[in-house]
Amino acid sequence: MDQKYLGFQCIHCSQEFEPARVRYVCSSCGGNLQITYDYKKIRRVLTKQALAKNPITSIWRYLDILPVSGSSGLSPLQIGWTPLYPSVQGGLGDKLGLKRLFFKDDGRNPSASFKDRAGAIAVARAFDVGENLITGASTGNAASSLACVSVPLGMKTIIFVPQTAPQAKIAQLLVFGATVVAVKGTYDQAFDLCLEATQAYGWYNRNTGYNPFTREGKKTCSFEIAEQLDWAVPDFVIVPVGDGNIISGVWKGFKDLHALGLIDRLPKLLGVQGGESDSVKRAFEGNGKIEAVSGATIADSISVSIPRDGEAAVQALRESGGLAIGVSDAEILTGMRRLAREEGVFAEPAAAAAVAGLLQAQARGVFRTEDKIVTLITGNGLKDVASAMKAVGQPFSISPTMDDLRQLMLRLGLDSATK
Q: b/e map of 38-68 (b: 16 or more CB within 10 Å)?
C-alpha cells in the first residue's frame, strides 16, 4: 500500500495502529477506527492546480488521498461528482430568505444513493487485500450500492437487510445479482448477524462504521463541494443522520482539505435525525454517550436503534460547532414535497429529512441571510415510492369524457383557455 496511508487511529481511545495490525475495529477497546495520512507528502501532489487539470469526474479524481492502491478494483461506474444545485429563482432559498442555498444531489449516483461512494472504496479495498466476496448489512441503500458497484468488477456480494426494507431497494439488490438475506427483525439485528457471519465464514465486511474504509468514500462529497464552490467553504452543511457514518465522513473530508491547506476554515455541521431514531441527537445534547433508541421513523435509511458510527458523528458535530435537529415524519414528508415542487429534486425520506432540518433550523433563527448552506440529498425518491405517495396523495380520477375534465378543471381553477 502506498505510504500516503499511514494506518489507523481509534476514535474512542486514540490508540494508533499500523495497517497490518488491525482489519476493522480497535483491538484494545473495540472502537471504530479513523484512517490516517501523510499530509505532508500528499500536499506535494494534490493541489488546486492539479485538480483543475484532472479530467476524471468521479471520486477517483481524489485517489491521492484515498486509502486504496488504484492498481485494481476501481469501479468504472460514474460515482460522485454529483451536481451541486443553487436554489432556483422563486425556490426554497427565496422563500426562506437564504441567498446562498445549495443542494448536493447524490441521488444521481449509479444506485441512486450517496452510499455508492462508500461501496466503491470498500470494494477497492477488498481487491487490495485479495478478497473476492464482500458482505454487508443495510436498511437498503448501502446494500444496493454495494451490489451495484461490485458488478463490473466481478465481486460477489451477500447482503443482509431487514425484511421491512422498501421493495424498491430489495428489487435493486436482486437485479444486481446479490445473494439477499432478508432478516425477520430490525436493521440492528441484521447488522449483528452479518458480523457473526463474517467471523464464521471469513467474508470481507463492508458494514458501516465497523469498516473504517466506508468513511473514506463518504468524505469525497466534501472534496466535491469545496471544488464546486471554487474553494469557498460553506457556513453550514446539512446532513441526514442514521448510523452517523455520512456526517463523520463529511467532517473527515473537510478536515483532510484543511490539513492539506486547500481550505482555510471549516464549516459547521447540522445533523438531522428522524422521529425516534435520534440517538446521536440525544448524545450530542447530553453526555456524548450513544444509547439505544426505538429507531422508529418513516425514513428507513436513517432508522437505526444503535448508530454504528455514533461516537464519530457526535465528535464531528461538536468539533464543528454544529447542531443536531430532530424532525417528525410529517416534517419529512413536507420536506420531500417542497424540495420536489420548489426545486425539482425528488428525494427519498432520509434525504428529505435534511430539507426538513433546513426548514426547522431557519424557523429557529439558526441561519443568517448571507450564510452559504449546502443541503445533502442522499437518495432518490424512487427508492421509496410508498412514502412519496403519502407526501402527495393520489391523482385525480375521471371518466374519459370532456364533461368530466371540464368539471375537474373548474374545481381546480384551471378552466380558463390558454394558448
A: ebeebeeebeeeebeeeeeebbbbbbbbbbb
Q: What is the mean pLDDT of residues 405-416?
A: 93
DSSP-assigned states of every residue in 14-77:
--EE-TTT-SSS-TTT---EEEEE-HHHHHTT--HHHHHH----SGGGGGGGSSS-SSS----S
CA distance 183 to 175: 19
Return the C-alpha cell found at 419: 394558448
Calpha distance 353→333 (Å, rounded)? 8
Alpha helices in 267-384 (DSSP H): 279-285, 310-320, 329-343, 349-363
Is the distance from CB of 226 to CB of 257 less than 8 angstroms?
A: yes
Whole-number pLDDT of residue 1:
44
| ∠ Cα 200 205 210 (to 5°) | 110
Can you tell me the mean pLDDT for 200-218? 97
The CA-CA-CA angle for residues 132, 133, 138, to 5°, reads: 145
Between CA 190 and CA 137 the distance in angstroms is 6
Strands 33-37 vs 5-10: parallel, antiparallel or unpaired: antiparallel
Share of residues in the chain with pLDDT > 90 (%): 92
> Interhelix angle for 385-392 vs 329-343, to 10°?
80
> In this structure, how many other beta carbons lie within 10 angstroms of the beta carbon of residue 356?
29
267 C-beta neighbours (distance < 10 Å), count: 23
Identity of the residue numbered 379: G
Does residue 173 contact residue 146 with C-beta atoms inside 8 Å?
no
What DSSP letter does each residue of 234-259 carry, written as one string? -SEEEEE-SSSHHHHHHHHHHHHHHH
> β-pairing, 179-183 with 156-162?
parallel
Please name which of 381, 359, 391 lies closest in space to residue 92, comparing C-alpha atoms: 359
Assigned C-alpha cell, 152: 463490473
